[in-house]
Amino acid sequence: GENVEQHPSTLSVQEGDSAVIKCTYSDSASNYFPWYKQELGKRPQLIIDIRSNVGEKKDQRIAVTLNKTAKHFSLHITETQPEDSAVYFCAASKGYQKVTFGIGTKLQVIP
Amino acid sequence: DAGITQSPRYKITETGRQVTLMCHQTWSHSYMFWYRQDLGHGLRLIYYSAAADITDKGEVPDGYVVSRSKTENFPLTLESATRSQTSVYFCASRQADSPLHFGNGTRLTVT
Predict the structure, then answer these.
(1) Which of A79, B11, B67, B68 has its CA 20 to 30 Å from the CA of residue A66?
(2) CA separation, residue A39 to residues A1, A27, B46, B78 (Å)
(3) Which residues of chain A does B36 touch, with a Cβ-Cβ cutoff of 8 Å?
């Protein structure tokens, strides 16, 4: 089955700096890659996703890049703010089936 | 999103007891999932369902039972709870080619 590896497990950045979280996946047939943000005590919520026919996608301060050849995808957050502090999960999915998650990255933005 | 609800939010039970976690969605999504969240493991898939009366095992199905007699409900039963099943359980749903939506979670403690 699919295996998603995510790193780093923790990340501290100064407010205003950029944060990058990287993931790799094992199944070359995976074609959908969402990213979720989970605040303390809350449910995971989708922040951005990308499909395999696209190399990059942006939404304001958030961007995701996908390298299908290397089976890598990354989340980039620019101009970080304290409210960006949370746990971020990458995930991979093949078609409409189950979504496999990475172990999460705890991001701390220091004011 | 009020469209997917889990109950109870918190549950304490004893080792060996049977406990059922409920999940209800109002979107008529075909696909439903149960994940458990543990520190250091991220979100791991327990069971999923592609439609009523169709269920399949995920990554960590041992000790759990599911059913899906109606599209909107997907209960998860721990037949004989063990301490290792202490976790936060998330139900999720998606329609074909749409993002995964999570419920608010159930925090289960097995004593």
Answers:
(1) A79
(2) 28, 29, 22, 27
(3) none
